[in-house]
Amino acid sequence: MKKKLITIIAATAIAATAAGCAEIPGSQTSSTGGTSQTSGETSLSGTLSMNGSTSMEKVIKAVNGAFSAKYPDVQVNLNLTGSGTGLQEAAEGKCDIGNSSRELKNSEAENLEATVIGLDGIAIVVNTANTIDDISLDDLAKIYAGEVNNWSQLGGNDKAIVVIGREDGSGTRDGFESIVMGDKEANYAQELESTGSVINAVSTTEGAIGYASLANVDESVKALKVDGVEATEENIKSGCYKVQRPFICAVKKGNDNELVKAYLEFILSEEGQALVLAQGAVPVK
């Protein structure tokens, strides 16, 4: 069932053009906000809180900066404690928006509404000294399951493979494992708590392999092709690059907060989607 994630992503992205936004009367929320009419225009004020995916950090910070510039009386507070925590806090009303780099689980969808704001390739990264440039999904699964443990088994240098990934609850880990692992169980040498930590560990460990949001990959590591396909905007949007997932903003069902509504409208606007693209993710509009 997990292997169907890519199809689900594509369908969700097409449908995600509106934000379900709003707060149940009497429910607890961390936001305050209101609107006022000035010269025929609506101005916003108050505080908007969000928590979630570290993979979405660059995208969300860029959007938040532009949103704050447009609405200077709105304060946007952002925490980055992972997709699972962000979604849980949104469902509990502890934050207004939970940012997640994976689809909602069925149990989460009972209380949350998700808006897909972009697509992201999960890049497979190795140390720059690695001579391998391409890897199959099957071999990738074998590496993470511990069935292949030396790069020489794949035509590379005689170097032990150091398997690096994210911590349990990470949206990136969930997306990677659901697409790549199938019935195999991942066996990690290191489980790290942020995208930046994975990239740093791979860049400083010659035999290492890891996965990270394409938007955060830099020249300190080498991104591998997967089944001969490079992780590019075009290949992600077309579905040719298989290791990909959605970036979503999730809101507690029944939340009608005006700041939440304005934020989701902004991130799906032409300006917002241009910011998504500029930070290395693939826009959905």
Report, as a whole number of angstroms, the end-to-end distance. 27 Å
Helix content estimate:
25-40%
CATH superfamily of the largest domain: Periplasmic binding protein-like II
Tally of DSSP β-strands: 12
Mean pLDDT over the full residue set: 87
CATH domain class of the largest domain: Alpha Beta
Describe this structure as you would to a colleague.
Strands 1, 2, 3, 4, 5, 7, 8, 9, 10 and 12 form a 10-stranded mixed sheet that branches. Strands 6-11 form a two-stranded parallel sheet. It is 32% helix and 26% strand. The chain folds into 2 domains: 153 residues, D-Maltodextrin-Binding Protein, domain 2, CATH 3.40.190.10; 118 residues, D-Maltodextrin-Binding Protein, domain 2 (3-Layer(aba) Sandwich). It is an alpha/beta fold and 285 residues long. α2 packs antiparallel against α10. The N terminus is likely disordered. The chain contains 10 helices and 12 strands.
Concise account of the structure shown:
The chain is an alpha/beta fold and 285 residues long. Helix content is 32%, strand content 26%.
Question: Any descriptors?
Answer:
single chain; 285 residues; alpha/beta; D-Maltodextrin-Binding Protein, domain 2; 2 domains; ten-stranded mixed beta sheet; two-stranded parallel sheet; 10 helices; 32% helix; elongated; disordered N terminus
Strands, helices and their partners?
Elements: H1 5-15, E1 32-38, E2 41-52, H2 57-70, E3 74-79, H3 83-91, E4 97-100, H4 106-109, E5 112-127, E6 134-135, H5 137-145, E7 162-166, H6 171-180, E8 190-192, H7 195-203, E9 208-213, E10 221-223, E11 225-226, H8 233-238, E12 244-252, H9 258-267, H10 270-278
Parallel strand pairs: 2-3, 2-4, 6-11, 7-8, 7-9
Antiparallel strand pairs: 1-2, 4-12, 5-9, 5-10, 5-12
